[in-house]
Amino acid sequence: MKVLVPVKRVIDYNVKVRVKADGSGVDLANVKMSMNPFDEIAVEEAIRLKEKGIATEVVVVSIGVKQAQETLRTALAMGADRAILIEATADVHTDIEPLAVAKLLAGVVKEEAPGLVLCGKQAIDNDMNATGQMLSALLGWSQATFASELAIEGDTAKVTREVDGGLQTIAVKMPAIVTVDLRLNEPRYASLPNIMKAKAKPLAAKTPADYGVDVAPRLSVVKTVEPAGRKAGVKVGSIDELIAKLKDEAGVI
Amino acid sequence: MAVLLLADVNDGALATDAVAKALSAVKGLGEVHILVAGTSAAAAAEAAKLDGAAKVLHADDAAYDHGMAEATAALIVSLAGGYSHIAAAATAFSKNVLPRAAALLDVMVISDVTAVVDADTFERPIYAGNAIQTVKSSDAKKVLTVRTASFNAAATSGSAAVEKVSATADASLSKWVEDKVAASDRPELTSAGIVVSGGRGVGSQSDFALIEKLADKLGAAVGASRAAVDSGYAPNDWQVGQTGKVVAPTLYVAVGISGAIQHLAGMKDSKVIVAINKDEEAPIFQVADYGLVADLFNAVPEMIEKL
Ligand SMILES: Cc1cc2nc3c(=O)[nH]c(=O)nc-3n(C[C@H](O)[C@H](O)[C@H](O)COP(=O)(O)OP(=O)(O)OC[C@H]3O[C@@H](n4cnc5c(N)ncnc54)[C@H](O)[C@@H]3O)c2cc1C
Ligand SMILES: Cc1cc2nc3c(=O)[nH]c(=O)nc-3n(C[C@H](O)[C@H](O)[C@H](O)COP(=O)(O)OP(=O)(O)OC[C@H]3O[C@@H](n4cnc5c(N)ncnc54)[C@H](O)[C@@H]3O)c2cc1C
């Protein structure tokens, strides 16, 4: 079984985000970019499936700017076999919407015929939490989102999901889309020799036109602003003072 | 035009608070019809009490009882014809279902809406709440999830009619196996007036009982940082933050939590924030109204005793 993992290049989660002065978006010029943390978890899971002999090949795909190559090379260095870059824009500030990403991924799925697609639960830039579900809909496949455990048994995937009240376990028919949550695994670091080896692994370059997909956005950004800031309050010296403040000043207890 | 509001139902019970807040968010957009999917007549009756609901559509079929995405999204699509907006509270349930329904309708989904500007324009946080973006949709139908912490709950003095809707669900793609949901007498995290959260500083699962004791003393819900959940001190459904729950209680008490942006994303709209941390440089103090630099193992027992 082939496993497909879509990986997104996003602002590194440690970087302090700055809104551009003209309100058009977030400043992404010259900031550190990394693989979306959820996608690292998805790549790790795919590699583990291969190590267990369940997956035969791990293919990673990224949609965005040419620099997303670096993200794909990271995935190859972790252990993926092959990469596909769909260059959909030349501008680092243009983000491709989940619906368009899902349509492109559906095109990749038709070509590659994977038995399983492992997506991140959400991209930490736009926090839309949508792409996997949309891809699943377009393919008419089953979906299991927010996975914290995954077990493949024949043509079914048993997935434990993180839901609002706790955990839910479902069994989905393969082929399926699984979106991964934080506690599925701890991704490995790529070793130096593997980083070197990754440079020689195949990376195919494509465009949206190859899949006949129109990536024109459905949402337009009217403006982007910084949220209202919160000011630091006061330090209290003791529990007695804290309780007094909460009772008398804030009136919240 | 009218709004179809998908209701959250957990184990036969309506998630009244979440649905009531989502209802307030969308009621300005048109007549609201609440869709209750599943066999629970009690949930449909409860939804009918929400002020501002014009009617309740009850898809009374066991295929919808566990909120499976495939069947529920297909149901929404079969009803979508007459609606300009399809909305739901931004819960794990609707985040699973609505993007799927949106793609079937060939429209984008707009997640975690914090303000409705007009019928096409919505505000939503991006980058863990470090920026607020106003987006305008050109889609014919808008599919959106609403961040409940940003809206007040509609009252429950209404009496809308409940109408049955039928649909044929294809249940062959996925099967529910089990839910592991801990029963609790504490208030629910996303609707509680007070939340007490513990972080990695608490140190162990057994010491997390201290956080729970303080919460019980205050009649509060219990939350946790990701580090506390990852370390097994607290269950996953207690996680507050960018990728956990978003809360905005009157009082939020953060104990042994450093204040990473991913955590702040889930609680910085709380009315009053208290931080107890032994490191006076911890970033949590930059958002706290009242900060106490202290060892939590001294401060928390003292607070429990003196409250
Ligand atoms: C600076 C900026 C500019 C923007 N400009 C516009 C604009 O001009 N017009 C507009 O309409 N909208 C714009 N947006 C909004 C944006 O298009 C959507 O809100 C965004 O795409 C939301 O999806 P997400 O990336 O959070 O996906 P999610 O659905 O949260 O992603 C989930 C998973 O899907 C996969 N995935 C997602 N994207 C990719 C990808 N590109 N490659 C490979 N895998 C992927 C990954 O596995 C990921 O973990 C902009 C946003 C920003 C921040
Ligand atoms: C993709 C992604 C998503 C994430 N999503 C979330 C999320 O949703 N929610 C979330 O919370 N995090 C999230 N994180 C993790 C986040 O970045 C931080 O790692 C996490 O919030 C840290 O948890 P903490 O504050 O409990 O631990 P730490 O940062 O380790 O802080 C522990 C604090 O406890 C204090 N302390 C220690 N001992 C004591 C004592 N005896 N008395 C008093 N104080 C003490 C220390 O001074 C320290 O400040 C996410 C990260 C990533 C990459």
From TrEMBL, chain A:
| The keyword DNA damage belongs to this UniProt entry's keyword annotation | no
- PROSITE patterns from the UniProt entry: ETF_BETA
- Protein family: Belongs to the ETF beta-subunit/FixA family.
User: Gene3D superfamilies annotated for this entry?
Assistant: HUPs
* Stretches assigned to the Electron transfer flavoprotein alpha/beta-subunit N-terminal domain: 23-215
Q: Which UniProt keywords apply?
A: Electron transport, Transport
Taxonomically, what lineage is the organism? Bacteria, Pseudomonadati, Pseudomonadota, Alphaproteobacteria, Rhodobacterales
Checking Pfam families in the record gives: ETF
Give the highest taxon in the source lineage: Bacteria
InterPro entries in the record, alphabetically?
Answer: ET-Flavoprotein_bsu_CS (IPR000049), ETF_a/b_N (IPR014730), ETF_b (IPR012255), ETF_beta_N (IPR033948), Rossmann-like_a/b/a_fold (IPR014729)
- The protein's organism comes out as Paragemmobacter ruber
Protein name as annotated = Electron transfer flavoprotein subunit beta
UniProtKB/TrEMBL annotation, chain B:
InterPro entries reported in the protein's UniProt record = DHS-like_NAD/FAD-binding_dom (IPR029035), ETF_a/b_N (IPR014730), ETF_a/FixB (IPR001308), ETF_alpha_N (IPR033947), ETF_asu_C (IPR014731), ETF_asu_C_CS (IPR018206), Rossmann-like_a/b/a_fold (IPR014729)
Query: Which portions of this protein are annotated as coiled-coil regions?
Result: none
Indicate yes or no for the key word Flavoprotein. Answer: yes
Going by the UniProt record, its keywords in alphabetical order are: Electron transport, FAD, Flavoprotein, Transport
PROSITE patterns, per database record: ETF_ALPHA
Q: Which Gene3D superfamilies match?
A: HUPs, TPP-binding domain
Specify whether Transport is a keyword of the entry. Answer: yes
Question: Which region is the signal sequence?
Answer: none
Any matching Pfam family: ETF
User: What residue stretches are annotated with the Electron transfer flavoprotein alpha/beta-subunit N-terminal domain?
Assistant: 3-180
Q: Which family does it belong to?
A: Belongs to the ETF alpha-subunit/FixB family.
- The protein depicted here goes by the name Electron transfer flavoprotein subunit alpha/FixB family protein
